[in-house]
Amino acid sequence: MVNDLSRIHELLSDLFEWPQSEKEWEKYRLSEEQIAFFKENGYLSHIKLLDSWQIDQLNDELEALIDPDHPGNELFYEFKSNESEDPNTVLFHSLGHWRIKEGFHDILWNPAFLMAASQLLDDKSVRFWHDQLFCKPAKHGGVVAWHQDYSYWTRSVPMQHLTCWVGLDDADIQNGCIYYVPGSHRWGLLDKPELAGDMEGLMDYLTDAQKKEFRPVPIEMEKGYGTFHHPLMVHGSYQNKSERSRRAFVLNVFADGTQSNTDQELLAGVPVFRPGEKLEGQFFPLLLDREKIYPKA
């Protein structure tokens, strides 16, 4: 039986160094211009989060994790070797790998990620929601259909969530990089399509005005860089028909104080939180406490 790392809410390895003072945190701060761009467009990309040696370690762990027979597989919330509805393409998708491997556990406590996340959440303390892996193999990688993340997350309220997508390969148009529809975070909550189904399924839920504003932009980034987006940002990614893989992980967080909005499981195997109960504890750790960095006078 593999140790369940969700019980440990601090760095386990030397993958990152935890800042020891407000001054050490400052080097990770986003600029006012970056925050303004996020608020206007609904996303902020090209934020360096990993060095090459950290990427190598995570890719080594990933290679083991995608094996269905890997020890600890039962700790995943979801594990789909292929979530694609097209039998000719492959989209590996999983949730819960932070519980299994030290590197993927410790990326939750990456200071560069956490400072940016806190700023984009209006300077609030950051609590973990869940992680994801999205892997598209070379030549036949599947799509991730246009969608809004929060349309799958209404079981948690209020909407004060944030997503960070980080490439473990260079991502470009050829190998299926993520696309955003700037400004779509102001469209309100839309119905949710099948995540790995028809790429254009969301179009059935858009107004004529929204269809006219639907102008996606590709987010091409070197590996190790991250892109943050609003929970209502419409985004997706096309097939990978290139000779290169496109591996990425996603960190989903929310502001401290988020509550359950369901009497069902929030994630597979996680104890039920009744409606109105604060999400906290073993599976929703506090990643960044703002008051510890910036104590009130």
From TrEMBL:
<dbReference type="GO" id="GO:0051213">
    <property type="term" value="F:dioxygenase activity"/>
</dbReference>
<protein>
    <submittedName>
        <fullName>Phytanoyl-CoA dioxygenase family protein</fullName>
    </submittedName>
</protein>
<keyword id="KW-0223">Dioxygenase</keyword>
<dbReference type="InterPro" id="IPR008775">
    <property type="entry name" value="Phytyl_CoA_dOase-like"/>
</dbReference>
<dbReference type="Pfam" id="PF05721">
    <property type="entry name" value="PhyH"/>
</dbReference>
<keyword id="KW-0560">Oxidoreductase</keyword>
